[in-house]
Design a protein that fits this description.
The protein folds into two domains: about 170 residues, Nucleotidyltransferase, domain 5 (2-Layer Sandwich); about 80 residues, Aminopeptidase, CATH 3.40.630. The chain has eight helices and 14 strands. The strands form five sheets. It has a six-stranded mixed β-sheet with strand order 11-6-1-2-3-12, with helices on both faces. By secondary structure, the chain is an alpha+beta fold. Strand 13 and strand 14 form a beta hairpin. The two termini are about 35 Å apart.
């Protein structure tokens, strides 16, 4: 089921009754002793009144300050928090929220996290998704769960993806880097939204909701979850705006030899705030 987290502020403390600022993350979780990194991370503004969603992707390699742990890649926040609390996901989620809030100077209302297996299960519950792939994608060394590699290929044009394929499509970045991967994540999310609004899936909705509740962990209560599901049924692709920040970042190598993205923190928070505000 869906666990509740202590990180969300009560509704009365929120900035705006008609909107939420949400962190959304996808965890690369293999085994408990391995690092659990949020290799997909976004911060989104959900406006119930408009209705609209504006989502800014945060590159996993962005160097940030993780409160209590010092400087590290943003995708490490969850693992630092979780491991410090004996593998507790609530602590990992709370530190992820705190990290995004502190670095981008945002008030965060809540978080939703899934792992990659859960993401694939949700896609499969919908019967897969259809995307219009803008160009062919090939990766000779796509990582597998057993720490090996496999070859993947997606032709250009209309393609149907099951859960495993959608995950690979959304994760691969060897051919075209972070921007290509973020673009494919957005294509999959929009395709999932379109599928969710297809009347043909109505008979499957109970199973889909059950699968979603198992796959996604969030600190939003059932009432807010219901509001968000209802909102999803009314949104069109035009109501959703995705943003990336890589044009404001540059590559760098830390003293330890780790490749990272760096940003100008005197301007980056304002850029993100401005995007979310529309």
């Amino acid at each position: 089921g869906v666990a509740l987290l202590p990180v969300a502020r009560p509704v009365s403390a929120r900035q705006d009754e008609g909107a939420l600022t949400v962190v959304v993350g996808g965890l690369d979780t293999r085994t408990p002793d391995q690092p659990e990194n949020t290799d997909v991370l976004m911060v989104a503004r959900v406006d119930f009144d408009a209705p609209s969603v504006r989502a800014m992707s945060i590159p996993r390699d962005l160097l940030v300050d993780i409160p209590g742990f010092g400087t590290d890649k943003v995708n490490r926040a969850y693992d630092h928090g979780s491991k410090a609390a004996d593998g507790d996901w609530e602590a990992g989620a709370a530190l992820t929220v705190e990290t995004v809030a502190a670095n981008f100077e945002l008030d965060i209302d809540g978080i939703a996290l899934t792992n990659f297996e859960g993401f694939a299960d949700v896609i499969d519950a919908f019967g897969g998704v259809d995307v219009d792939n803008p160009y062919e994608v090939y990766d000779a060394e796509y990582p597998t769960e057993d720490f090996g590699y496999r070859e993947i290929y997606f032709p250009a044009g209309e393609i149907h993806l099951d859960g495993e394929d959608a995950l690979a499509f959304a994760r691969t970045r060897h051919q075209d880097g972070d921007d290509g991967r973020v673009m494919r994540q957005q294509l999959v999310l929009l395709a999932l939204l379109a599928k969710a609004q297809d009347p043909a899936i109505l008979p499957d909705l109970p199973e889909i909701v059950r699968e979603g509740r198992e796959a996604v962990r969030t600190d939003f209560d059932r009432e807010m979850q219901a509001r968000l599901i209802e909102l999803a049924s009314t949104l069109s692709a035009e109501d959703i705006v995705f943003g990336t920040m890589t044009e404001y970042l540059w590559g760098d190598t830390t003293e330890s030899g780790m490749w990272v993205y760096q940003g100008d923190w005197s301007t980056l928070p304002g850029i993100v705030q401005g995007f979310l505000a529309g």
